[in-house]
Automatic annotation (TrEMBL):
It comes from Mucilaginibacter aquariorum. Keywords: Flavoprotein, Oxidoreductase. The keyword Membrane does not apply. Residues 5-322 form the NADH:flavin oxidoreductase/NADH oxidase N-terminal domain. InterPro entries: Aldolase_TIM, NADH_flavin_oxidoreductase, OxRdtase_FMN_N. The keyword Phosphoprotein does not apply. It holds the Pfam family Oxidored_FMN. This is NADH:flavin oxidoreductase. Signal peptide: none annotated. The lineage of its organism: Bacteria, Pseudomonadati, Bacteroidota, Sphingobacteriia, Sphingobacteriales. It comes from the Bacteria.
């Protein structure tokens, strides 16, 4: 496919179509207020993104419970007090012509007590001195995801993206190494996937047929088993439970190094699955127009832009203007980000990522 194919519309199972094949990945930025309300820094960020040509913009990981917080200054959606800021974000994105989604997040056993978080492990062996949460507590967290989705709908978002990656609670429950429960949420793969399925089904039930649901999945580390995740994904595709899969790879070109799929690209294991009307996109080192176009050839319906979108806010527009566009090499100086208009709180967050910002960069 030509790079120009990235600018063809993409219908989704529910709600409006994506106007092109660019989605902004959910990017942790730690620039909200300490109580989770959106700050002026958040609004500056989303105002920039809204004018950047994306078809769909996901928020950063957004807390469905105050006790599920992972990061300082994490955006929240666990209270009606968050609605004014969230409504403003949704409106800003809509005015720019894009679709919007709140990424729903709970840190699980990695909830940060220093920030008021309460670790919620699936197993009693994961966090020293902390017992596994009860069945009732699992169900409460499930319902918090669903309530948060209703709140996103009320705020005017087109949908939500359920965070099932990187060892956070839904990913944790999926792992046979982090989940040794003997209730209906542990044991078999069906039981370990139950929390994710119930969250997705509950959102569809409560939010109706026009609301979009995405699911972010990672398949590396955190005790995850590739073959199992592929089977769960096939089930979700077959039932068309989601509108799109956001496959979060560290590198979209990664190859499987062991097991029955050794030598195959990780991406191919999911693009080759029958997916009916569900759309599939991938994130992972997509830094050039050429690579974005290649991923459509490899079976993706869309691409998720992450670091390239931080370095250059309007990555889709750059690609549209120049089919040979390449993002600048990282790391960059903080001043480069500052001159591009990135809010200072976001820049301060990025100082912890030496692959993005030069250490000690003023």
């Amino acid at each position: 496919m030509a790079v120009s194919d990235l600018f063809k519309p993409l219908p989704l199972l529910h709600g409006p179509a994506m106007r092109n094949r660019f989605m902004l990945a959910p990017l942790t930025n730690q620039q909200s207020e300490f109580d989770g309300t959106a700050s002026e820094f958040d609004h500056i960020w989303y105002e920039q993104l809204a004018e950047s040509g994306y078809a769909l913009i996901q928020t950063c990981a957004t807390t469905v419970e105050a006790s599920g917080i992972a990061f300082a200054r994490q955006l929240g959606i666990h209270s009606d007090e968050h609605l004014p800021g969230l409504t403003r974000i949704a409106s800003t994105i809509r005015v720019g012509g894009g679709l919007s989604a709140v990424q729903l997040h709970h840190a699980g056993h990695r909830a940060n007590p220093l920030l008021g978080g309460i670790p919620a492990p699936a197993s009693s062996d994961t966090v020293p001195g902390v017992d596994a949460i009860t069945t009732e507590e699992v169900e409460r967290i499930r319902d918090s995801f669903i309530t948060a989705a209703k709140r996103a709908q009320l705020a005017g978002f087109d949908g939500v993206a359920v965070h099932g990656a990187f060892g956070w609670i839904l990913s944790e429950f999926m792992s046979p190494y982090l989940n040794d429960r003997n209730d209906k949420y542990g044991g078999s793969l069906e039981n370990r996937a139950r929390l994710t399925i119930e969250v997705i089904e509950g959102i569809r039930r409560e939010c109706g047929p026009d609301f979009q649901i995405g699911w972010r999945l990672s398949i590396e580390r955190y005790g995850l088993v590739l073959e199992e995740l592929r089977a769960v994904t096939a089930y979700i595709f077959d039932r068309e439970l989601i509108d799109y899969l956001d496959l979060a790879l560290w590198d979209s070109a990664q190859v499987v190094h062991e097991g029955q799929f050794k030598g195959k690209s990780m991406l191919s294991l999911f693009t080759e699955l029958p997916r009916k009307g569900v759309r599939l996109g991938v994130a992972g080192k997509i830094m050039t127009a050429r690579r974005a176009g290649e991923l459509l050839d490899e079976g993706c319906d869309f691409v998720l832009i992450a670091r390239a979108g931080i370095i250059q806010r309007d990555f889709p527009l750059q690609v549209k203007a120049n089919p040979a566009y390449e993002s600048v090499k990282m790391p960059v100086m903080a001043e480069h980000l500052r001159q591009g208009g990135l809010p200072e709180r976001f820049i301060n967050h990025l100082r912890g990522w030496q692959t993005i910002v030069f250490p000690n960069s003023p």
